[in-house]
């Protein structure tokens, strides 16, 4: 409506009439004349456009194009404007000067020689016809040619606002009852616990895909991954597939089966690449799995032989992809991920492989993150590397070399933007210690060359000594999980990733049950964001590192969705000295209410476990 | 009302009581023809055009050189307009079609035209043919001519006070608001035409500022579906603009028809008498055609259902003419028995044969509503047609019966690399070949079965063929020329329509260049160029029996042609805007046209008269489809709704609303149970037409006026979205598989 009025009030400006008159040599054009002309021009143009719309409609297009205008001119017995065809949008330029403002279309003079000598433009592609089944006996098959049955927006809405669906259903039900004119028969809908069943075909698909993805047949795996990445209509199977990945990672980290871990990560990547899926509901399974592959202490049987570094790089890229696509202010995904990584770097006793993962993960999250979290640690890392390089342990040496390579690659572009040339070796040495000279070289090099695209550095070098990987949690959480109160922890509401500098502040807990007795949970709402701090009350003063692992992975798909956010951040960590006994908070709940127990282990020479499954 | 006699206005109204509405369109065209003449070197052609314009059509003179069909073509007749406009001030309920005076007046008008344009010999011929030798005075007061235009416009001349208009309108509106609910909705129909004519009077009398303010204040108050017209009107801001502008022509030359109950009318009349002389009573008196009926005034939904067309509502008496909507008797197929034997050989069980016979007999039975078989001459069946019929029959036996539980399979033919280029798609009846036209004036034909497209052998090679051989048809074609795709070049502008002949040997195409071309699909050459339409031709369609075809275009006429005549046999003039779509009735006796004036008309091919006018669409109509039973017509277009009309009752049956953008194609399944539709919203939708039929039988009420139109979205059976591919064509194969096609816009 308002647009209509706007359109009808649009007129051809009298200034334009004057300019046009000037350009054809009639310089003093009276105001009244130009006004008259402008009105006439407005009317004629609008009539032409109106009639031209008919050509647009019969050309079955939504866009008016220049040829429509030509045709309508021809229809009105006016010579068409030849040579004004353009397939692309022509920008309307603006210029001002001499007290006048002008809109014009850029009309460059073309050199005829250039046009003649230029290679002939490519022929347009031949029109081709491709048949496919849009529906088979009234059911639309989920093939790439057809749109996904539930589009991404709906999935997203479903994930972000599950209540919307409920209310929609309610009104529909009511309408139905009214429409029938029935006496008030109230039907209470009892929602079944397992409402989600896969059809026989889907079960077969699941079986085939999972077998192919982790099997030994590489071409078949390629096909399976392609199917995961491009097929629409997988959303029904996503919960199962995510569970498969999570379970697989959990088991194989314990087994230290690098190959399977890689396959599973590729599977996760394929799912994330699928444009028709919105995976926010399943982050609670995917994020811990991917994180495990980045920062786990040991990922393979022979760390000195196998290239687990590549897996860490790959998983780091995945996590950055997840952050990019699914980070919202509500789930604070990036904040939490960043926090986990930076905690790794802040702890002295983090194994070198985990340090590598943390650096890789942080630097993949972008230069800004690297600047805030990696740069301050550069000196400490540098010392650590020096120590390892000069030590005798071959594993440590190898790992240190990897970290060094990674740091040089990722930090140099950041330093380049932060520091001004000239880059003196002494400055660098003073600031960054051992790594200084090499960093300086890298920065100088980076200044000369355009920044190279990030590629995986996959040098097969031996790794450092293995330490025991800890998978702490076993068991399942039943559907009860959805009922428990949700606590969403955000330290600082709006700043993502920048806030967790001080080690003491970093407490994230997210359980689907009331907090364990040993913890006090305080919740306050600041600007719509629930801020909860969990204070571990284990041993006052020097609290111990506590990991809470919640694994809802064996749940059915629909239920998993309900508790997804609750179970997302599954680690509660507080800072502490390593001499104290480590407390593990184990959440179990196979087929029943969740039991939470605190286990204590005392290991004298314990490295803080970094695994999150 | 009749008391308020304002001679200056009423006497000058252009609505000639005896002349078809369509002349409004025609006299504009003839005005423009003079310019057209300068463009076309072929002055002969121009003459032809002009003659066409007035429905005279002296086709009898034209040699019928290439008679390929043994049946004689229909004798060309003057398409006598059936519409008699009510010039009498008292709105009448009944208007018997006075045939003789109408024809006489038409004849006079035609003769005037011929005389004016100096077509002496044609005039003489016509006089002789019609035994009419009275003298015809020059067409000063008749149709056409610039004098006419100015006199029409001067009707708007009025010395009234411009300020009075706004108050008068507001008072009318207040009256409508205060009316009893029973009358309110019918009375409210008066508002829009009064508004329009008030505005035009203001503009004509040069009150520019007042008219602008008038439009700005009151324009937005009009019904939503009139907003586009209001916008068009808003462009007219001075007297100069009023000539040659289409919507203007419509308003000034025709009366706006409004149907209302007698009670409502007396209610309105009381008000008008109270007002005495003023713009409102005058306009209602002169410009509106009020059609009264006995009975209860209609409700809002009923009023809304039929409102929306540029001409107001369809007057009831238009739609009282009997229409033979039944199907023609299927011709005897002597070789059917043989075919059935073949069927047995294929392994059909004898059990299946029984229903076969029944259905066969059913189709043989005479439909009481069917026209006589010789009502219009139809081409005789050739052997090849009989073979084709037998093949179709066999396919029909294997057809799946669709209903709401058994939905069809849909096969989608996606055009790649063709975004914005494909303008029309057609698929042959046996679903073997697909033709499409492009914006760059190409026509391409593609086989969608493994069968290739072959060219006929040269004449020397043909003479070597044994003509008695069984496979002579196969031998005729040259195997070396087999190609999956062929391109036909000839049009000089976008091709807006293409249509295969039922025997698949011919293809008709029409385009922006104003020509219709007939192509042979055996020699792959252009056979005939039909020049007749003055401007772009939007649609062309073959008759289901072949030989005849119909077209419609920007010149606001629909035309009926025969393939062996290069002149149209009938010209259907009457629409107020472009004829966007034409469709043949399954019995070939009628042609339906849909137009941008938002109405649908059905024309009788026998005498060329309009026999039905359906109003109710709120925007241009782009597709029409007759149900296989012949009784129902489905239409759809820019207003995103599909409306089903009943030819027998002349009423709206149902309205199907679910699409979100322009609908470009609808088609019925072969058994008539499912209606498929598609358009720019990238979605194929299936509708339960079986239920529409059921409900309609249940009711079977005698609808005197406004039926309660059911608007049910529960009729929607399925919605199948595509990946950003608009749907330009839907087609049910003989076995009820739905073929859908459109260009990918990725």
UniProtKB/TrEMBL annotation, chain A:
Record-linked Gene3D superfamilies:
Histone, subunit A, TAF6, C-terminal HEAT repeat domain
Kindly give the Pfam families that the UniProt entry links to this protein: TAF, TAF6_C
Which Gene Ontology terms cover its molecular function? Answer: protein heterodimerization activity; RNA polymerase II general transcription initiation factor activity; transcription coactivator activity
The protein's location, in the record's own words, is:
Nucleus
Q: What SUPFAM superfamilies does UniProt report for this protein, alphabetically?
A: ARM repeat, Histone-fold
UniProt keywords (A-Z) are:
Nucleus, Transcription, Transcription regulation
UniProt name for this protein: Transcription initiation factor TFIID subunit 6
From which source organism is this entry? Halocaridina rubra
From TrEMBL, chain B:
A cellular component annotation (GO) from this entry: transcription factor TFIID complex
Q: What superkingdom does the record give?
A: Eukaryota
SUPFAM superfamilies per UniProt: Taf5 N-terminal domain-like, WD40 repeat-like
Give residue ranges of the WD repeats.
488-529, 530-571, 572-613, 614-655, 656-688
Q: Where found?
A: Nucleus
Q: Kindly list the biological process annotations in GO that this record carries.
A: transcription initiation at RNA polymerase II promoter
Alphabetized UniProt keyword annotations: Nucleus, Repeat, Transcription, Transcription regulation, WD repeat
Question: Residues annotated as region Disordered?
Answer: 80-99, 336-381
Q: Does the keyword Transcription belong to this entry?
A: yes
Bias (Low complexity): 80-89
InterPro entries xref list: TFIID_NTD2, TFIID_NTD2_sf, WD40/YVTN_repeat-like_dom_sf, WD40_PAC1, WD40_repeat_CS, WD40_repeat_dom_sf, WD40_rpt
Q: CDD domains under this entry?
A: TAF5_NTD2, WD40
Listed Acidic residues bias regions:
338-347
Major localization listed first in the record, in broad terms: nucleus
Feature: compositional bias, Basic and acidic residues: 357-367
Task: Cite the TFIID subunit TAF5 NTD2 domain residue spans from the record.
Answer: 159-276
GO MF annotations, alphabetized = RNA polymerase II general transcription initiation factor activity
* PANTHER family linked to this entry: CANNONBALL-RELATED (PTHR19879:SF1), TRANSCRIPTION INITIATION FACTOR TFIID (PTHR19879)
Question: Of which family is this protein a member?
Answer: Belongs to the WD repeat TAF5 family.
Q: What is this protein called?
A: Transcription initiation factor TFIID subunit 5
Source organism:
Halocaridina rubra (Hawaiian red shrimp)
- Source taxonomy: Eukaryota, Metazoa, Ecdysozoa, Arthropoda, Crustacea
Gene from which the chain derives? TAF5
